[in-house]
Write a structure and sequence with these properties.
The chain has one domain. It is globular, with a radius of gyration of 16 Å. It contains three helices and nine strands. It has a five-stranded antiparallel beta sheet, with no helix packed on it. A four-stranded antiparallel beta sheet has the order 7-6-8-9, covered by helices on one side. By secondary structure, the chain is of the alpha+beta class. A hairpin with a 6-residue loop joins strand 3 and strand 4.
């Protein structure tokens, strides 16, 4: 009986880790050479950014449990305080890189961040802790690989 209780408890703890952080906040993590940044709305809604110095930037937005962005056939845009960025995770050009840097810097100070999916859904992303979680683009902690000439 105790084995089943313990297994149930472990399964319950595992499902809580899926949310990537506390709802209403930005959080960060690091693993296997990748810096991860996540703004969590709730268990079915978040914005996730992965950066490292080997692979290009990856971004996903999960809206109502459906994933958009780098690993999906459907993309998304982001509006930060009214400035619109189409497919901000496409950084493999000088323009894409510049747009990503601009968006990132604005997200650190944002009053509003909104994900707009290819099928028209909107998700208001939290801004709490963005300035302390997202490193400045000119800092050593910022490790998002961009386009190389």
């Amino acid at each position: 009986m105790n084995k089943y209780l313990f297994a149930t408890l472990l399964l319950g703890l595992g499902s809580q880790a899926w949310a990537y952080g506390e709802a209403g906040h930005w959080s960060s993590g690091w693993g296997q050479g990748t810096s991860e940044y996540t703004a969590v709305v709730d268990a079915k809604n978040n914005l996730y950014i992965a950066c490292n110095d080997i692979k290009k930037v990856a971004m996903t937005a999960t809206v109502n449990g459906k994933e958009y962005g780098s690993y999906s056939e459907q993309g998304f845009a982001i509006e930060v305080d009214g400035t619109h960025y189409d497919t901000p995770y496409e950084t493999e050009s000088r323009v894409g890189e510049n747009n990503f840097f601009d968006m990132w810097d604005k997200m650190r100070k944002a009053q509003t961040i909104t994900v707009i999916t290819a099928d028209g859904q909107k998700l208001n992303v939290p801004t709490k802790d963005a300035a302390s979680v997202l490193p400045a683009t000119k800092s050593q902690e910022f490790d998002c690989l961009m386009w190389n000439e």
